[in-house]
Amino acid sequence: MNYNEVTSVLYRIFAVGALALIALAVIESAANVFRYTVIREAYRPGRLVEFASMSAVIAMALLLRQIREELHKRA
Q: What are the φ and ψ backbone dihedral angles of 40, each rounded to 5 degrees?
């Protein structure tokens, strides 16, 4: 595996993780409306969104790095 493949896999992992955390936050918020909980109040939905945004920033940084490397190859 070369460097580009590793960053591509990491980008996908962080992007899917961010989407999963957002989905979990939405489900938890909906469950809280009906006085239920999905994750037993380990984290509040807002905290899950914070984690998702951190993961999304890392995913964007990896994607921008890949784009920059591709542009350097073409130049």
A: 55, 40
The separation between the first and the last C-alpha atoms of the chain, rounded to the nearest angstrom, is 24
Residues 34-60 as b/e (b if ≥16 CB within 10 A, e otherwise) read eeeeeeeeebebeebbebbeebbebbe
Q: Which of 38, 42, 20, 16 is nearest to 29 (CA)?
A: 38
pTM of the full predicted structure? 0.86
Q: Using one digit for the tens of pLDDT, what is the confidence trace for 41-57?
A: 789 999 999 999 999 99
Q: What is the 3-state secondary structure (H, E, C) of 24-59?
A: HHHHHHHHHHCCCCCCCCCCCHHHHHHHHHHHHHHH
